[in-house]
């Protein structure tokens, strides 16, 4: 196996050097596979995750940063790929359950579920309105507009730690209100 420095690896991948790419695959794929198995729990899915990461590495080779260790990049990319797949599967499960629920319930059951949903929505809105202004603004930018903490910090001209503190406060308060019915 080739013994290359991180800079040589990045340079080789950027130049689309197949022998460097294969050497990196042989060296890091087993570790990435172990990471993926911990997240997705299935060997076939874990293999797919590793393949996806290496495919993305090949496609975006020119964006690699030679200062960042390749093993850290690959580990983080594997975790992110797994988390994205898990989120996608969860969204799909929710959609399927909603479709089964709608298809399998009668009008009375639908009305009851709709009423419960409206009640929960009202409690959520009420709890949101009771949050301090800045805290509510941060929460809404994060959860409703989908902005990252860094984007929120920049837009509101506050530190990223303040953003995290506001999000933590908002989530705690909302959780209390939504879990504990009045």
TrEMBL record:
Ranges for domain RNA polymerase sigma factor 70 region 4 type: 123-174
Note the superkingdom of the native organism: Bacteria
Keywords in UniProt for this one? Sigma factor, Transcription, Transcription regulation
Q: One Pfam family name from the record?
A: Sigma70_r2
* Domain RNA polymerase sigma-70 region: residue ranges: 25-91
* UniProt cross-references to InterPro entries, sorted A to Z: RNA_pol_sigma-70-like (IPR039425), RNA_pol_sigma-70_dom (IPR014284), RNA_pol_sigma70_bacteroid (IPR014327), RNA_pol_sigma70_r2 (IPR007627), RNA_pol_sigma70_r4_t2 (IPR013249), RNA_pol_sigma_r2 (IPR013325), RNA_pol_sigma_r3/r4-like (IPR013324), Tscrpt_reg_LuxR_C (IPR000792)
Gene3D superfamilies from the UniProt entry: 1.10.1740.10, Winged helix-like DNA-binding domain superfamily/Winged helix DNA-binding domain
Question: Would the keyword Transport be found if you checked this record's keyword annotation?
Answer: no
Tell me yes or no: is Transcription among this UniProt entry's keywords.
Answer: yes
The record ties this protein, via PANTHER family, to: RNA POLYMERASE ECF-TYPE SIGMA FACTO, RNA POLYMERASE SIGMA-70 FACTOR ECF SUBFAMILY
Similarity field:
Belongs to the sigma-70 factor family. ECF subfamily.
NCBIfam families in the cross-refs: Sig70_bacteroi1, sigma70-ECF
- Put simply, this protein is called RNA polymerase sigma-70 factor
Protein species of origin: Chitinophaga nivalis
């Amino acid at each position: 196996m080739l013994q290359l420095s991180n800079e040589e690896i990045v340079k080789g991948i950027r130049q689309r050097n197949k022998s460097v790419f294969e050497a990196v695959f042989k060296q890091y794929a087993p570790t990435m596979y172990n990471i993926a198995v911990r997240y997705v729990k299935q060997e076939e899915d874990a293999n797919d995750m590793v393949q996806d990461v290496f495919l993305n590495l090949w496609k975006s080779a020119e964006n690699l940063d030679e200062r960042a260790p390749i093993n850290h990049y690959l580990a983080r990319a594997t975790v992110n790929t797994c988390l994205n797949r898990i989120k996608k599967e969860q969204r799909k499960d929710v959609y399927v359950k909603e479709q089964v629920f709608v298809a399998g319930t009668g009008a009375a059951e639908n009305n009851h579920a709709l009423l419960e949903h409206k009640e929960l929505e009202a409690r959520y809105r009420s709890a949101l309105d009771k949050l301090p202004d800045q805290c509510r603004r941060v929460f809404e930018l994060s959860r409703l507009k989908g902005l990252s903490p860094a984007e929120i910090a920049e837009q509101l001209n506050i530190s990223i730690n303040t953003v995290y503190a506001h999000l933590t406060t908002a989530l705690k308060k909302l959780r209390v209100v939504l879990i504990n019915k009045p």
